[in-house]
From TrEMBL:
It comes from Acrocarpospora pleiomorpha. Gene3D superfamilies: 3.40.50.2300. SUPFAM superfamilies: Periplasmic binding protein-like I. This is Branched-chain amino acid ABC transporter substrate-binding protein. The keyword Signal applies.
Length: 375
């Protein structure tokens, strides 16, 4: 049962030598600001994992993980300062990098240090770097990945002819993803009428929605962060646009309904995890534990925090007695596969790869998710 919750490492021996040990793990997190809708559930997912790791004695009888969480207030400099603080305090590992701008600033520091880090959510290209940085985050923009499969399926099922792509022009990862979306659309014979750049801090999308509605595309693709996606969808619906909107799993946070309301109806996304559509027993058990602890269903971000903490636990176990940071990094590098809430992951160069297409969902007018049959 324990292995079903965390996966396999390729060199998985009982951690009896670590009995009674306390493993300190630091987490510079996104608890306030625009990204808190993702940052808070990421932390909660990690907390569920810590509780499970400790209760099941995964690291040995009496051995426990002690998770220290502090808010970086969306400031990469604060993330760097906290990482260095955790290293000084004797952390065996760190969870980090909810956003790509944080990851871009922090990654060079981690690569020059001894304390390994697990990327929780950032999708910036090239982050994984064993034995320093490991990323269990499924990259939807990888060739043949979730975006490609999603567009292939949706374009075939709904026969799009034209599209408009909206990107957060000030977020490198969203710009890069926008190019992946456009290539996938064009590969399926869909003409991209325009790519529109908007700011990640923008909150009024009336002009953008008017610009899009005037072109009447068959589909709008939002390569944007969660809150801008929700506000864009609401503005489009307010302007009378009633066709499909596609986005990433960044649009899956339940809190986004507060921003988008019924305007989110018909916005579709592909996600590796959905609480009401579990792909395996690991996902079911995680959902049960999360509901019991927080009286709510976990979202994709909670799943990321849970998966990240379990990956670090596997590295701690592989490191054996003492779990010096360098040994934890080497232990993480030994992890070849992980049975996760997304299904089976395999690791190449510290980066998780998921072969399955994920689950295809759309928002309903009452703030729920409905499965799309071609997913």
């Amino acid at each position: 049962m324990i292995l079903a919750s965390c996966g396999t490492s390729g060199d998985d021996a009982p951690g009896a030598a670590a009995e009674g040990q306390v493993y300190k793990v630091g987490f510079p997190a996104l608890l306030t600001g625009a990204a808190a809708f993702a940052g808070k559930p990421i932390v909660q997912g990690a907390e569920v994992a810590v509780e499970e790791i400790n209760q099941t004695a995964f690291l040995g009888q009496g051995a426990t993980v002690e998770l220290k969480v502090e808010d970086i207030k969306s400031d990469p400099a604060k993330a760097i300062a906290l990482y260095r603080q955790y290293a000084t305090e004797g952390a065996a590992g760190v969870l980090c990098c909810g956003l790509s701008n944080e990851a871009g600033a922090l990654a060079p520091v981690i690569r020059q240090s001894k304390v390994p880090a697990i990327v929780t959510s950032a999708i910036l290209e090239g982050l994984a770097s064993p034995p320093h940085l490991f990323r269990p985050v499924v990259l939807p923009s990888s060739p043949g990945g979730v975006y490609d499969k999603f567009v292939d399926s949706m374009a075939k099922a709904e026969a799009y002819k034209t599209a408009v792509v909206v990107v957060n022009g000030d977020v490198d990862a969203m710009v890069a993803d926008g190019k992946v979306w456009q290539a996938a659309l064009e590969r399926n014979g869909v003409k991209v009428l325009e790519t529109i750049a908007v700011g990640s801090a923008d909150r009024d999308f009336t002009a953008t929605a008017t610009q899009i509605e005037a072109q009447a595309p068959d589909v709008v693709v939002a390569s944007t962060l969660g809150t801008p996606t929700a506000l864009l969808a609401r503005s489009l619906r307010d302007r009378g646009y009633d066709k499909r909107i596609l986005s990433s799993y960044g649009a899956s946070g339940p809190a986004l309904f507060d921003a988008g309301g019924a305007g989110l109806a018909g916005l579709a996304f592909a996600t590796p995890f959905a609480a009401d559509h579990p792909v395996n027993d690991t996902a079911k058990k995680f959902t049960e534990r999360y509901r019991a602890k927080f009286n709510a269903a976990p979202d994709m971000f909670a799943a990321q925090g849970y998966t990240a903490m379990w990956l670090l636990a596997m590295g701690l176990k592989n490191a054996g007695a003492g779990a010096a940071p360098e040994a934890v990094g080497q232990g993480l590098a030994k992890v070849a596969t992980q049975e996760s809430v997304y299904g089976g992951l395999r690791y190449e160069g510290g980066q998780a790869i998921l072969e399955s297409p994920g689950v295809y969902l759309e928002w309903t007018a009452d703030g729920k998710f409905s499965a799309i049959g071609n997913g």
